């Protein structure tokens, strides 16, 4: 019934609305003692009906008058009044902006009626916990809608009752959570503090009274309540953020709010401090924009205390074995800590913080888990530390690369990550390059550390490209033995990216030979795959070597002057000259890739590649060919020398490029449910069409396929697929705007 009212209410004759309303109210009254789930669904149905039934004026007043005097009806009345404000902004309801505005104004008018009802319910509830939970949920719902009068609420006994419940040690978990949610809703509702000053003051003072209750919850090890208090403290800080930054220590900018969050940061469970992360991000952002040294100095001590707490929370268990996990909950928490530290470090000073962290390792003899956590935080800020005349950086780098192999694996792992983050230090101090590479090679040979070491080598290659040129042949040897290391696919590709970046810095006359050797490894892997029978049980997935070739091509970008032959052209031609046997791996891509030389400079796009694309696409409508077509148009559609080959004709002069791709596509979409069954094809077809509109609109407008493309675009406007629909709409928008903007 709820779903029908939500989605199909417009089908109902107007004269049946009243009878449906009365029937639903009768049902909820008769079924009120059954499952709470049924009551909630009926309450939602009634709320959705009220929001869509414009003729039901003053629905709140009607409901309160009808049911408020019957104690047994109060629970379902409160349920309706709770979900009613929540449904106002429901995306499931077909109501326009004007109707929503009318509803909100109506609910605001009757909000005092609801508050009076809630006060009556409190008096009748006594110690009935379930009733109090319903009252707080309902109040929170009306706070969230933002229609309660803040001056009236500031003096309401409901507000003092909320804080009484939160201050009492004996409050149950469910009631505590409901009261906490309600206070958070109230704080969120007064985001504009100045216009809600009376309520803001009451909430501010009320939350500050909860510190002792928090300590009691910690003493009783009641984590649920601790989390609730931290949510309330965080919402307090979020609400008064502008005051905290603009008038720190004064009035509503009272910094006791930050003290509450730092008390929470001291809790041993990392889940508690994590609740406050969004506030600390926002505080950092506001202070960065403020750019006032005096105000920054006020917050420095608070941020230092936070960073020390975060470093402590990042410690692994002392009995942890192996490397730190990055994909479990704690690993994700550490990643969020790393991001937060990077955002806040400007307030403390990265040089000072880095030196202090290093001093804790240098001057003491901390347990391995403390060492690892400190190295982890140092890795987070290493890139932001000023490189000029900073002996600490050099000392840290020297100390790390001389760590004995006997230290805990997790310490080695994080120290490798730190070295990767310090690649700029290596670039400024090339005397460390050899020891650093030696250290990382040891890690690369250890299966537990290999991926981290590969990532660090990639960073070193990216930053120290000129210094690494002398080590290119070492990188080439690593590339040849890539599959002998225990690397994640991303780490392997990253290593090849680093190698390609260094390759591009070699003398031009050496690049062709070195690129050929680098590509040969991947070409041999492909040839080995191609020589297999498809059913021999071995992997026939070519994407690994193809991805690796792609990253090599993408990042080998030497500086070539006009008139010079591109050193990579010959290698691309060599790589392209191999054949796919029939019946192999990819469906139907048989025998098509022989002797297709690709002019890498692509200054004349009489491309055999286009012939090949179209011929394969005619036989097998894989949408990736349409995507590739859009890339070619995007890259070369603006170049005079390319238009003839790319936009007008194929090499044999037989048919326009776009038409050759569109005809098989139209045939595919004409099949029963063609649009619904092939959303990827729709997505890529209109991406291609949009590229023509952007790069060469007249070519498309004169094409024979323009009218069918427009007809398919109109047909696809109702396609229920986000990406495909987005591409269609973008094409139509670009088409219209091009016509408006371009004579």
From TrEMBL:
InterPro entries membership: ARM-like (IPR011989), ARM-type_fold (IPR016024), Exportin-1/Importin-b-like (IPR013598), Importin_beta-like_NTR (IPR051345), TPR_TNPO3_IPO13_2nd (IPR057941), TPR_TNPO3_IPO13_3rd (IPR057942), TPR_TNPO3_IPO13_4th (IPR058537)
One GO cellular component, as annotated: cytoplasm
Species this chain originates from: Upupa epops
Protein name: TNPO3 protein
GO biological process assignments: protein import into nucleus
Signal peptide: none
Residue ranges constituting the Exportin-1/Importin-beta-like domain according to the UniProt record: 36-182
């Amino acid at each position: 019934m709820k779903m029908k009212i939500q989605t199909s209410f417009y089908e109902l004759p107007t004269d049946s609305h009243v009878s449906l309303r009365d029937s639903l109210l009768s049902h909820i009254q008769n079924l009120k003692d059954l499952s709470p789930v049924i009551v909630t669904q009926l309450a939602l149905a009634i709320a959705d009906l009220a929001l869509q039934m414009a003729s039901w004026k003053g629905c709140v007043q009607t409901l309160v008058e009808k049911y408020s005097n019957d104690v047994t009806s109060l629970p379902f009345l409160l349920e309706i009044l709770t979900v009613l404000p929540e449904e106002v902004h429901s995306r499931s309801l077909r109501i326009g902006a004007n109707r929503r505005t009318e509803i909100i104004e109506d609910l605001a008018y009757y909000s005092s009626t609801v508050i009076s009802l809630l006060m009556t319910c409190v008096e009748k509830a006594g110690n009935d916990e379930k009733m109090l939970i319903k009252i707080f949920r309902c109040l929170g719902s009306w706070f969230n809608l933002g229609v309660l009068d803040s001056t009236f609420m500031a003096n309401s006994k409901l507000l003092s009752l909320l804080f009484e419940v939160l201050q009492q040690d004996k409050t149950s978990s469910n009631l505590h959570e409901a009261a906490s949610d309600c206070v958070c809703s109230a704080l969120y509702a007064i985001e504009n503090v100045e216009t809600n000053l009376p309520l803001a003051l009451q909430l501010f003072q009320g939350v500050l009274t909860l510190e002792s209750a928090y300590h009691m919850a910690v003493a009783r090890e009641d984590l649920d309540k601790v989390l609730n208090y931290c949510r309330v403290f965080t919402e307090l800080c979020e609400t008064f953020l502008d005051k905290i930054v603009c008038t720190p220590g004064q009035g509503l900018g009272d910094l006791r709010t930050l003290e509450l969050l730092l008390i929470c940061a001291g809790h041993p469970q990392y889940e508690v401090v994590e609740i406050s992360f969004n506030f600390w991000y926002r505080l950092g952002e506001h202070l960065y924009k403020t750019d006032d040294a005096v105000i920054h100095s006020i917050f420095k001590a608070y941020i230092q205390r936070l960073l020390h707490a975060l470093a402590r929370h990042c410690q692994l268990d002392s009995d942890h074995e192996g490397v730190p996990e990055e994909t479990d909950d704690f690993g994700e928490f550490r990643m969020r800590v790393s991001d937060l530290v990077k955002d806040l470090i400007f307030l403390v000073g990265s040089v000072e913080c880095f030196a202090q962290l290093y001093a804790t390792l240098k001057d003491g003899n901390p347990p391995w888990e403390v060492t690892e956590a400190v190295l982890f935080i140092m890795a987070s800020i290493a890139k932001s530390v000023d490189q000029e005349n900073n002996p600490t950086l050099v000392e840290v780098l020297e100390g790390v690369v001389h760590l004995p192999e006997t230290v805990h694996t997790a310490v080695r792992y994080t120290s490798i990550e730190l070295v990767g983050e310090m690649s700029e230090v290596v670039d400024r101090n090339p005397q460390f390059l050899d020891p650093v590479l030696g250290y990382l090679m040891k890690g690369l040979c250890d299966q537990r550390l290999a991926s981290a070491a590969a990532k660090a080598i990639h960073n070193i290659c990216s930053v120290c490209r000129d210094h690494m040129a002398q080590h290119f042949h070492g990188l080439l040897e690593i590339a040849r033995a890539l599959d002998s290391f225990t690397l994640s696919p991303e780490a392997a590709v990253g290593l090849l990216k680093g190698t390609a970046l260094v390759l591009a810095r070699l003398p031009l006359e050496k690049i062709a030979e070195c690129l050929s050797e680098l590509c040969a490894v991947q070409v041999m892997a492909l040839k080995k795959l191609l020589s297999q029978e498809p059913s021999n049980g071995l992997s026939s997935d070519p994407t690994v070597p193809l991805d690796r070739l792609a990253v090599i091509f993408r990042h080998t970008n030497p500086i070539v002057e006009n008139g010079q032959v591109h050193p990579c052209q010959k290698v691309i031609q060599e790589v392209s000259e191999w054949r796919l046997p029939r019946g192999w791996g990819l469906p139907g891509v048989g025998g098509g890739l022989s002797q297709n030389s690709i002019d890498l400079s692509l200054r004349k796009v009489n491309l055999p590649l286009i012939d090949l694309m179209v011929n394969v696409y005619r036989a097998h409508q894989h949408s990736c060919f349409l995507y590739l077509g859009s890339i070619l148009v995007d890259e070369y559609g603006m170049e005079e020398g390319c238009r003839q080959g790319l936009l007008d004709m194929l090499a044999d002069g037989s048919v326009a490029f776009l038409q050759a791709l569109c005809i098989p596509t139209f045939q595919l979409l004409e099949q029963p449910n063609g649009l619904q069954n092939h959303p990827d094809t729709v997505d890529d077809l209109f991406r291609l069409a949009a590229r023509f509109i952007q790069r060469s609109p007249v070519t498309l407008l004169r094409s024979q396929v323009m009218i069918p493309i427009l007809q398919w675009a109109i047909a696809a406007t109702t396609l229920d697929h986000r990406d495909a629909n987005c591409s269609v709409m973008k094409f139509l928008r670009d088409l219209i705007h091009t016509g408006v903007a371009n004579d």
